[in-house]
Amino acid sequence: xxxxxxxxxxxxxxxxxxxxxxxxxxxxxxxxxxxxxxxxxxxxxxxxxxxxxxxxxxxxxxxxxxxxxxxxxxxxxxxxxxxxxxxxxxxxxxxxxxxxxxxxxxxxxxxxxxxxxxxxxxxxx
Length: 125
Fold this sequence. Notes:
Elements: H1 2-11, H2 16-21, H3 35-45, H4 51-58, H5 62-79, H6 90-94, H7 104-120
Helix pairs in contact: 3-7, 5-7
């Protein structure tokens, strides 16, 4: 059954934004406990969000928040024994285990940093 789903997912012309992030059918996702953050996370996975526009219209200084996110991801990257900087991508932030061979704990830490970024962005549903 999973093979059939995978073939359909690979051939589908819809959902390409999500496919770019999560290519394997059956990939387990971790969701935040905060409902608003979870909804924003799913919208990011679906490429269906106005998060950036919302921040702009609200006059939020997202550079401080974004810098904090990047620093946390960089710390996790270095703690995993890697040199340099990670290749920044949507997939790294939304589905880290599909991009890099992070441990479960490291993937959860990346997602926790992403969820914190979403929450601090001030987006409310």
